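Priority: medium. Attachment 1 of 2:
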């Protein structure tokens, strides 16, 4: 690898005095990469104690990692130019490793009983049993330079037992959702089916309390980080389609993947398309059956999302999937196998594929119909916020699981208003419980009176139809952020139409993370997109569209009342 001397002077180190500079422009400087690190400070036999989780168990030191061999001795490399990774392995060939990335300029690593136990657990060491661990430091200067490896340290470590067979799915706020993934070998590789909402945010907590999310680096969806490294970590997020995802979280490679199954087809003695209940994480199909045994197949064409595709729907890889095995313990793969299912009695029967327990997927046949899958209305109507009691003012669903709706509406109401889940269904409404105010309160179905309205103005509405609450916030300022990957706030201009704001901008670069509309300079109050071009939704990730525009002057228009955006 070569460096022009001027690039080297700016990017690697300052040149010596001018009199000592290279003879002529165009001289090149070669590097063979960083020196090999020398590691010390390793104990030979470590017994980890779960009663002393924060006690120091292991310290590693290595020589200063910025020593880089350059062909021109008059050019010096800066401190911390090389990148170090501590690698742990259960085999001397390092065929499978667990990486611990180290920040630039840091030449040591300390591990408590808890963190070291987590690391060796990911290598498959058994609790209470002494195992051999091999440790080295990998040093890299650049993408085109081969890494150098330190000498290998060999350590005997006895970990304490933790149940690492279950990974707990947490919501965006790291609360337990009751959903789990399963690691049969307790080796840090978790899998299972998750019923996920569109762009759902989540985390995974292991039995050792390590919490995994995205690594917090722009453009690295499906790459993982955790809460023990001290590095920036974001939550995971599913792609745009809402539904059934076969999810694999691999803590050994620091990557996860999501295989979307949009439909599941029955074959064999019964043919048809099954219906998915996302909240129950079950597929069902109702049919008229005769008593006895039926043989069916279950297959689909899924869409694979991973580090190579990101969350781009167009890049997702078509992947055939199917079930096999026995009805009481199914297997999942790509080749469909006939599955025998017992039908106890003739008549209306529902075939149920239950994916809620990742340790045992089952296929059963039971009498009766599965019943309709509960649907959540995409909008709710606020009749009475304007003088005309009609259904022209509505809020969009932004969280299906919590049944929460939001939007910004112009209020000019003398008598208050009511909330409806269906247009023109005047006999089914929600109003305010006594004690509520114009800005917050509880809702009751078909109660007396109306919800109190604030004075005329423009307000952000946040309505939770799950716990039956409402909240209003006056909107005093509307700004955009994210255009040209610039995350400062730029105020937009109100038009004569309520809820419509515009801003002229100069496009100079792409917008990799989309655009958000922020209210009142408050980063907790914002609109984003839902994956459909032109649509705004409260509390969603940035919306796209501007990357297709040519460089130059354009106008962004948003309608917060109708939930739309456009570029001109």
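Attachment 2 of 2:
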């Amino acid at each position: 690898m070569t460096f022009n001397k001027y690039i080297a002077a700016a990017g690697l180190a300052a040149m010596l005095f001018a009199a000592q500079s290279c003879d002529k422009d165009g001289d090149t400087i070669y590097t063979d990469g960083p020196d090999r690190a020398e590691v010390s400070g390793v104990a030979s036999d470590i017994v980890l104690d779960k009663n002393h989780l924060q006690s120091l168990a292991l310290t590693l030191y290595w020589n200063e990692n910025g020593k880089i061999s350059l062909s021109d001795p008059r050019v010096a490399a800066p401190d911390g130019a090389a990148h170090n990774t501590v690698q742990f392995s259960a085999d001397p060939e390092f065929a499978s490793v667990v990486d611990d990335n180290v920040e630039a300029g840091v030449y040591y690593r300390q591990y408590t009983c808890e963190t070291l136990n987590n690391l060796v657990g990911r290598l498959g060491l058994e609790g209470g049993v002494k195992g051999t661990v091999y440790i080295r430091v990998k040093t890299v200067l650049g993408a085109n330079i081969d890494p150098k490896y330190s000498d290998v340290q060999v350590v005997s470590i006895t970990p304490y037992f933790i149940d690492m067979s279950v990974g707990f799915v947490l919501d965006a706020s790291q609360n337990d959702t009751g959903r789990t993934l399963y690691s049969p070998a307790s080796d840090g590789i978790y899998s299972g089916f998750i019923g996920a909402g569109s762009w759902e945010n989540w985390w995974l907590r292991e039995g050792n309390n390590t919490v995994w999310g995205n690594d917090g680096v722009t453009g690295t969806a499906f790459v993982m980080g955790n809460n023990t490294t001290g590095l920036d970590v974001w939550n995971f997020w599913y792609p745009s389609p809402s539904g059934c995802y076969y999810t694999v979280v691999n803590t050994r490679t620091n990557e996860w993947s999501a295989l979307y199954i949009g439909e599941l087809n029955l074959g064999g003695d019964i043919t048809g398309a099954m219906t998915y209940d996302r909240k129950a994480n079950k597929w069902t199909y109702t049919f008229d059956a005769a008593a006895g045994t039926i043989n069916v197949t279950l297959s689909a064409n899924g869409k694979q999302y991973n580090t190579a595709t990101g969350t781009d729907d167009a890049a997702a890889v078509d992947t055939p999937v199917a079930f096999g095995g026995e009805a009481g313990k199914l297997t999942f793969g790509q080749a469909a196998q006939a599955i025998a299912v017992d039908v106890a009695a003739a008549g209306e029967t529902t075939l149920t594929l239950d994916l809620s327990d990742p340790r045992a997927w089952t296929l059963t046949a039971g009498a009766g119909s599965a019943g309709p899958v509960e649907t959540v209305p995409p909008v709710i109507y606020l009749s009475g916020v304007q003088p005309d009691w009609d259904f022209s003012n509505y809020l969009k669903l932004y969280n299906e699981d919590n049944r929460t709706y939001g939007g910004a509406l112009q209020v000019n109401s003398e008598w208050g208003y009511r909330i409806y889940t269906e247009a023109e269904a005047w006999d089914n409404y929600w109003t305010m419980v006594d004690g509520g105010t114009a800005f917050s309160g509880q809702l009751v179905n078909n109660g007396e009176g109306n919800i109190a309205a604030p004075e005329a103005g423009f307000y952000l509405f946040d309505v939770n139809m799950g716990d039956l609450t409402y909240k209003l916030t006056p909107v005093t300022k509307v700004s955009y952020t994210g255009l040209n990957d610039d995350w400062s706030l730029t105020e937009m201009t109100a038009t004569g139409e309520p809820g419509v704001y515009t801003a002229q901008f100069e496009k100079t670069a792409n917008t990799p993370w989309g655009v958000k509309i922020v209210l009142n300079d408050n980063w907790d109050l914002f609109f984003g997109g839902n994956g459909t071009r032109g649509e705004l939704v409260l509390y969603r990730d940035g919306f796209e569209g501007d990357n297709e525009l040519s460089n130059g002057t354009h106008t962004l228009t948003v309608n917060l009342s109708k939930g739309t955006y456009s570029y001109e």
